[in-house]
Write a structure and sequence with these properties.
Layout (H helix, E strand, L loop, with lengths): L3 H10 L4 E7 L2 E7 L2 E6 L2 E9 L3 H6 L4 E6 L2 H13 L13 E3 L6 E3 L4 E12 L7 H7 L7 E13 L10
Antiparallel strand pairs: 1-2, 1-5, 3-4, 4-9, 5-8, 6-7, 8-9
C-alpha cells in the first residue's frame, strides 16, 4: 500500500536515482534506476519500473515474482548510485552483506542505508513496442541501438522508511 506521506519524498529523490533490486535463491543484483511511476491501476497501488533487455537485472527479474526499490539520500549513496549504475552484476558482485537488509513482506532484499523502501510483487510485464513509441522519444533515448526497456508493474506490498534514518537530512 502506498504511504502517501512518503510519496512526496520518493518523487523528490527519483531524479537523483534509486536502486532496483532482485533476488533469486542466492543470486542477487541491484541496478541504478532514474525512471519509475507510482499510481493506482486495477484497484491496486502499483509501481512501474523499466529495465533494458541488455541488463543483468533483466535476467533476474524475469525469473522472480518480487523486486524492491530503495530510495537513498543522494549525498549518502552517490558513490553507489554511480558505481552500480555503470557496472554489471554479470561482471562484478555489487552487493555484500554490509549492503543489504532483509525485506519485511516479500522474498527479496533491500539496500541498507536508504531512507525509503518499496517491496513489490510483479503483476504484469510487457516489452516496449518501438512502433508505438513517439519518434522524438525513440531518437532521444534509444537511437540506433534499439536496446529498449521491458516494463514491469509491481503491486506495492509494503512501503516504509528505514528504521533509525532521517528522511533525507540536510535538504
Amino acid at each position: 500500500m502506498i504511504d502517501y506521506q512518503l510519496l512526496e519524498d520518493v518523487v523528490k529523490q527519483m531524479p537523483k536515482g534509486a536502486f532496483l533490486t532482485t533476488k533469486i535463491s542466492n543470486q542477487t543484483n541491484t541496478m541504478t534506476i532514474g525512471w519509475l511511476t507510482i499510481g493506482r491501476v486495477w484497484e491496486i497501488d502499483l509501481i512501474t519500473v523499466y529495465v533494458r533487455f541488455s541488463r543483468y537485472t533483466y535476467d533476474l527479474i524475469e525469473n522472480t515474482k518480487y523486486f524492491t526499490v530503495s530510495i537513498p539520500d543522494f549525498k549518502g549513496k552517490a558513490d553507489k548510485l554511480k558505481l552500480w549504475g555503470e557496472t554489471s552484476g554479470r561482471d562484478y558482485e555489487k552487493l555484500s552483506m554490509n549492503d543489504i537488509i532483509p525485506t519485511k513482506s516479500v522474498d527479496g532484499i533491500l539496500i541498507k542505508g536508504c531512507q525509503i523502501h518499496i517491496e513489490c510483487e510483479k503483476v504484469y510485464d510487457q516489452p516496449m513496442d518501438p512502433f508505438h513509441l513517439d519518434t522524438k522519444l525513440r531518437d532521444a533515448f534509444y537511437g540506433d541501438e534499439g536496446d529498449y526497456h521491458h516494463i514491469y508493474y509491481g503491486k506495492i506490498i509494503d512501503m516504509y522508511k528505514e528504521e533509525g534514518l532521517e528522511l533525507f537530512p540536510g535538504e
